[in-house]
């Protein structure tokens, strides 16, 4: 990393960002970092669709990337194509290192994640966390769909922070204080595309074998890694693996 890029990565976040609404958060990040150095990390949940809609009102062709783990539901791929057409954006796709996947599957099997939290986190590391690191090495800030009400591990999510895990780049969560109801109100009011599985009881969608529908009134993330304790139900993209392992052993 050059001295110039190091200075940009250490750019202080606005001290009053918690008072911004979602669109102002995004505008501030774009203004500070520039269109080419700020990217939306999209798994194409409803939050990502809302953020992309807001971003597109400020910047005609915002940068967007996704992590293709190789185990996504087909409906996710279908949605990616719909999003590309609806917003007229390119989606940068990052995939796992093939040799790392091959070694993991050879050693532990294709469905290793059901065996233990350690094995599940290993799979998430290879298929999601490592590709994320590659993606974030190209930017000075990333936008996420994190909301505080999604899970106890996300309850203190700031709207803009310095990401200690990825070289002190900005981590931007414009919907941090939104409710799930607000997200869906925005989608319906603006006739935005959304994931087909949401109409089948899925409220949080990741890899196909690690996601199921939830019952009415059940926690929205109960369908993610449902065989584990709630405290461990993160993949390492937003909570460090060491913290997840510690929680799972309590």
Outline the fold blueprint.
Layout: H1 3-9, H2 22-33, E1 38-41, H3 46-58, E2 63-67, H4 74-87, E3 92-94, H5 98-108, H6 117-136, E4 141-143, E5 160-163, E6 169-172, H7 180-189, H8 241-248
Parallel strand pairs: 1-2, 1-4, 2-3, 4-6
Antiparallel strand pairs: 5-6
Question: What do you see in this structure?
Answer:
With 250 residues, this protein is an alpha/beta fold. It has a single domain, classed as HUPs (Rossmann fold), CATH 3.40.50.620. The protein has a 6-stranded mixed β-sheet. Strand 5 and strand 6 form a beta hairpin. Helix 3 packs across helix 7 and helix 5 runs antiparallel to helix 6. The chain is globular and about 45 Å long. The C terminus is likely disordered.
């Amino acid at each position: 990393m050059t001295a110039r890029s190091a200075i940009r990565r250490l750019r202080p976040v606005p001290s009053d960002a918690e008072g911004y609404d979602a669109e102002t958060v995004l505008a501030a990040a774009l203004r500070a970092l520039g269109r080419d150095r700020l990217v939306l990390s999209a798994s194409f949940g409803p939050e990502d669709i809302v953020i992309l809609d807001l971003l597109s009102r400020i910047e005609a062709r915002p940068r967007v990337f996704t992590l293709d783990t190789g185990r996504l539901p087909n409906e996710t791929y279908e949605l990616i194509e719909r999003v590309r057409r609806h917003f007229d954006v390119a989606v940068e796709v990052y995939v796992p290192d093939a040799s790392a996947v091959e070694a993991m599957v050879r050693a532990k099997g294709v469905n290793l994640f059901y065996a233990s939290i350690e094995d599940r986190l290993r799979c998430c590391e290879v298929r999601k966390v490592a590709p994320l690191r590659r993606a974030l090495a190209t930017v000075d800030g990333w936008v996420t769909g994190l909301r505080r009400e999604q899970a106890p591990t996300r309850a203190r999510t700031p709207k803009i922070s310095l990401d200690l895990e990825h070289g002190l780049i900005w981590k931007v969560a414009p919907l941090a204080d939104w409710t799930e109801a607000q997200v869906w109100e925005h989608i319906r009011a603006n006739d935005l595309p959304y994931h087909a599985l949401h109409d089948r009881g899925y409220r949080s969608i990741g890899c196909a074998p690690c996601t199921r529908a939830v019952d009415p009134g059940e926690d929205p993330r109960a369908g993610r890694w449902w065989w584990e304790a709630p405290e461990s139900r993160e993949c390492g993209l937003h909570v460090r693996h060491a913290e997840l392992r510690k929680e799972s052993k309590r």
